[in-house]
Amino acid sequence: MLLQGIFPAVTTPFYTDGAVYYKKIEHNIDRYSRTPVAGMVVLGSTGEAVMLSDEERREILRVTAEVAAPDKVLIAGTGAESVVETLRLTEYAAKLNYDVALVRTPHFYRPLMKPEALLAFYRTVADRSPLPVMLYTVPPFTAYDLPLEVIVALAEHPNVIGIKESSGNVEKVAAMGAGTRHIKRTAEVTEIQQAVTARMLKAPAGSAEGELVNLGEPAGGNVAVTAKQKLKTRSKEVGFQVLVGAAHTVLDSLQVGASGAVVAFAAPAPTICFEIHAAWRDNDMELARSKQQGIAPVAKRIVAELGIPAIKYAMDLNGYYGGLPRLPLLPLTAAQKVEIEGHMALFRN
Fold first, then answer.
1. Each residue of 114-147: pLDDT tens digit?
2. Predicted model pTM
3. Which of 55, 103, 198, 333 is the most buried (most CB within 10 A)?
4. Which of 258, 286, 263 has the alpha carbon at shortest distance from 274?
């Protein structure tokens, strides 16, 4: 699976009473599907996944898969504290034609999470997972940073295709690239070098417009039906793919070998995040640096400091539905809302 470009870390909308607002999930996913992002990450940290019941997680996965455009890569956050629970949700996501399972580091029993425990956890998940696995290290929330040597060892597993690295450490991103450079893998891509998703294979885009096929001459005369167009694909070398999770480090990370980013700031502002990646891809470093410097202080304040309540309010300002977080996360104060309005004035969609 090709993991290149920008992936919004999507939020979970709630009613004021805390119930999941599924209709607003449909609204948000439909809007992201109309942007140039590569795909979406569902049930990650920004999605308040740890606040949800198993039933809610499954329904969110189902609704998202039904609405998302078939050319967008869907990454499901399926990580849990045990192998058993991780695999249960991963298997459900596979049935819904998700493309990748994002599995965060187990961390509750942190003193026991030695390298050998993490190696056993991820290798067992990868052995049994019906989806390719992405490692997910997010120290700001788990207080556990997956060691470099463990990442490099796990990258050898044929079903571990990449990592979301959310420490914000560009030097570590460079070290991961150096440590996994020997891993040579390929991904199936379209003629325009975009990812081939499970949903594209299930129902190829443009299947309603195909070549007319003559089925012979029955009693009533000739009958012609429209045949599905065959999806034309090719192989692309990708290796072990690193996606970063800090918006203010996107450009620096791309320059040292990252293939893209899963960023919470792309939830309210996907286009500007995409423009950084696009300018870098086109080797327009002056433009890429200008756009990166433009979002860095805003992303740090909204995402790193004020967190999910601020991300959701910024979405409200940009035509998405953010709404309230689920308790114990508290809504913004009036002063904080005014501050976010000022920050986001530069990044209106």
1. 999 999 999 999 999 999 999 999 998 999 999 9
2. 0.92
3. 103
4. 263
